[in-house]
From TrEMBL:
It is an enzyme of class 3 (hydrolase). It holds the Pfam family Peptidase_M18. GO terms for cellular component: fungal-type vacuole. One of its GO terms (biological process) is proteolysis. This is aspartyl aminopeptidase. Its cofactor is Zn(2+).
Length: 491
């Protein structure tokens, strides 16, 4: 057991994290794929799946490792300490699975000037001009009629080849393009999908392919979307016919692979670093700390990653939902012998656990931009490769405060992880995270932090390779030591 402990703790300095993270990014082109990648990692490390649809009595045990998903786009995983009992603390790391993207509209079929186009909707606050001239592919989930069972099931799909393009207008037709690139998100952000055939160009009316005695409350999938796109989906999912496709939630992504970059490969070039970075570091920290000192652990070590952060988190699977509170309620309603605790004692124990717990809200931070350094507060300029950034805001856009800084500093000193501080300049807007949402919802003490990146919300962001190991080490130490440290910082 001691040898295992040494191997796991020493592995954080190895470059395997960097290449594995690149593979994780290339396998996680949508929130559904990100959760699938996290599940695969958890299962390979001995975690068992639980369902919100079931009772957990007798299933959740001391030293057990579990995960539960919601909508297949949010996931919570946890390890139960050997000495856990309701009312004890939880050490929580949180992230989000979504990123700003273009999403295919419910009726996406478009034809213009003999080009086949696909209608898309902007999701989140993307740097949309960065999407022009990129090779775009499509990923997401498809609802399919299973001919064997008669049920409608969700299937992941990633077409993973260059299919679409949003071309810029040539400078010869717009001499001012280098002065200010202005475009209409509804009409100028339509991707090209191919050349339209003559029948598509001349067809001015909508075709109803249903028979007279068949009723469709919504137009058929063939009427709403380009046939060529549906054919690709059918082929990829090995369906017998397009008619098996009931509906889908598909997004566009940059088909250029994520990779290491820089003269010394010190950078990671990729989309979705916001916030798959924290998904990756959080899941690794949990699995690698799962067995560390677990015999004397009196708390629960929990990692959660939520969908819809980029649009405010107010959804059934967002951080502003009851997902985390419900999991906490389940965990605080089980006795040591796995029988139910009588209400109203359960409510009191949930409140006790919340008061003792701590939440590290992990979302990427703004690294100082060498070409726009004046956009940063002069004394708070995080640098890529120099460790996680503690994010602070007097107006509570971030939840970091002095007791939290004292706590995280103790852990960082032990793990030998450098930390940086960030405050937005007074003349600059400040974003927010899931931290304030979950803190106000649960009353759990919270600190906001994240690894620094450049080009946040662009189709192609830049992060630091070394920062992965730093953040994993910090989260490992947090999981391992929080329950013993939490009572030492009095507020």
């Amino acid at each position: 057991m001691l040898r295992l402990h040494i191997r796991k703790m020493s592995s954080v300095s190895k470059p395997i994290y960097q290449s594995e993270f690149v593979n994780f990014l290339n396998a996680s082109h949508s929130p559904y794929h990100a959760v699938h990648s996290i599940k695969k990692h958890l299962i390979s490390n001995g975690f068992e799946e639980l369902s919100e649809r079931d009772q957990w009595n007798g299933k959740v045990k001391h030293k057990g490792k579990y995960y539960v998903t919601r909508n297949n786009s949010s996931i919570i995983a946890f390890v139960v300490g050997n000495m856990w009992q309701p009312g004890n603390p939880l050490a929580i790391v949180g992230a989000h699975t979504d990123s700003p993207v273009l999403r295919i509209k419910p009726i996406s079929k478009r034809v213009s000037e003999k080009y086949t186009q696909i209608g898309v909707e902007c999701y989140g606050g993307g740097v949309w001009h960065s999407w022009f001239d990129s090779d775009l592919s499509i990923a997401g989930r498809v609802m399919v009629n299973d001919t064997k069972t008669g049920k409608v099931v969700a299937k992941l799909i990633d077409l993973n080849k260059p299919l679409l393009k949003i071309p810029t207008l040539a400078i010869h037709l717009d001499r001012s393009v280098n002065e200010k690139f202005v475009f209409n998100k509804e009409t100028n952000l339509l991707p090209l999908a191919g050349l339209a055939c003559d029948s598509e160009v001349s067809d001015k009316k909508e075709v109803n392919e249903s028979s007279d005695d068949a009723f469709n409350s919504i137009k058929s999938i063939v009427e709403r979307h380009n046939k060529e796109l549906l054919d690709l989906i059918q082929k990829e999912l090995e369906l017998t016919s397009v008619e098996q496709i009931e509906d889908f939630e598909l997004i566009l992504y940059d088909n250029k692979e994520s990779c290491l970059g820089g003269l010394k490969e010190e950078f990671i070039f990729s989309g979705r670093l916001d916030n798959l970075t924290s998904c990756f570091t959080g899941m690794h920290a949990l699995t690698e700390a799962a067995d560390l000192d677990i015999e004397k652990e009196k708390g629960i070590r929990l990692f959660g990653s939520f969908d819809h952060e980029e649009i405010g988190s107010s959804s059934a699977q967002g951080a502003d939902s009851n997902f985390l509170p419900n999991i906490m309620e389940r965990l605080c309603s089980l006795k040591a012998d796995n029988t139910d605790i009588e209400s109203p004692l359960t409510k009191s124990l949930i409140l006790e656990s919340s008061a003792k717990s701590f939440f590290l809200s992990s979302d990427v931070a703004h690294a100082v931009h060498p070409n726009y350094a004046t956009k940063h507060e002069s004394k708070h300029k995080p640098i890529i490769g120099s460790g996680p950034v503690l994010k602070i805001n007097a107006n509570q856009r971030y939840m970091t405060n002095s007791p939290g800084i004292v706590l995280i500093k103790k852990m960082a000193d032990t793990a030998k992880v450098p930390l940086q501080l960030f405050v937005a300049a007074n003349d600059s807007p400040c974003g927010s995270t899931i931290g304030p949402i979950l803190a106000s919802k649960t009353g759990i003490r919270t600190l906001d932090l994240g690894n620094p990146i450049l080009s946040m919300h662009s189709i192609r962001e830049t992060g630091g390779a070394a920062d992965l190991g730093y953040q994993i080490k910090l989260f490992q130490e947090f999981f391992k030591s929080y329950s013993s440290l939490e009572s030492e910082i009095i507020v």
